[in-house]
Amino acid sequence: MDYFSKMKGTTKSPPAVSLSEIIWAWIGSFAGIAAVAFVNSAIVDKTDLVMIIGSFGASAVLIYGAIRSPLAQPRNLIGGHMISAAIGVATFKLLPAPLWLISAIAVATSIAVMHATKTLHPPGGATALIAVIGSQKIHNLGYLYVLMPAGVGPLIMLAVALLVNNLSENRRYPEFWL
Q1: In this model, does residue 178 exceed pLDDT 70?
Q2: Distance in angstroms between the alpha carbons of the first and the last residue of the chain
Q3: Cβ proximity of 103 and 133 under 8 Å
Q4: Which among 149, 177, 160, 167 has a CA at the least distance from the CA of 63?
């Protein structure tokens, strides 16, 4: 019974967030995703490159909505996406296995390597998965996927996070760089 009793949880739900915090998170996430999507629309869409991927939405939650989390810091944002992208691409290119198996290997390996490098960023798991299950356009990028979108997109979002998250007297970002 000890195994199932662990599933009850040990704490109450987190405290409510202030209206001010909600507004700053909205402004930051809007500006960050808008900046990346605008670059994608105005510049990158005319090429065979890709600038925005779904995992950036989850990064926005962290770097604009949970700015004090260790998982939201610049090292984790950039490192987590780029390491996971490299693992996802390598797994897809090098392993002649069914897609379901490659998907699992890419995500699990990216989590292990992010832990080992102190760059754990949950959206990184999605970045690795996108490298495996993504469209032909994603697959055509090959290792360029590590730089664009997985490197440049988070850098743009980081620049917005530095600007927006420090406008309020009550917010400070980042907690640490390295």
Answers
A1: yes
A2: 42
A3: yes
A4: 160
Say what the pTM is. 0.93
| Residue 9 domain-assigned (yes or no) | no
Other C-beta atoms lying within 10 Å of the C-beta of residue 145? 26
Segment 146-161 mean pLDDT? 97
Cis, bond preceding 123 (omega within 30 deg of 0): no
In a domain, residue 175? The reply is no
Per the listing, tokens 């990158």 go with 44
Q: What is d(CA 132, CA 88) in angstroms, rounded to the nearest whole number?
A: 6
For the chain, what is the domain count? 1
Domain of 76, in residue numbers: 18-164
Residue 113 to residue 132: CA distance in whole angstroms: 17
Q: Is residue 11 part of a domain?
A: no
Rounded percentage of the chain residues whose pLDDT exceeds 70: 99
172 lies in some domain: no
Please name the residue that has the structure tokens 């406008």: 167
Task: Give me 40's structure tokens.
Answer: 């994608």
Q: Tokens standing for 131?
A: 């490298």
In Å, what is the CA distance from 149 to each residue of 19, 50, 83? 32, 6, 13
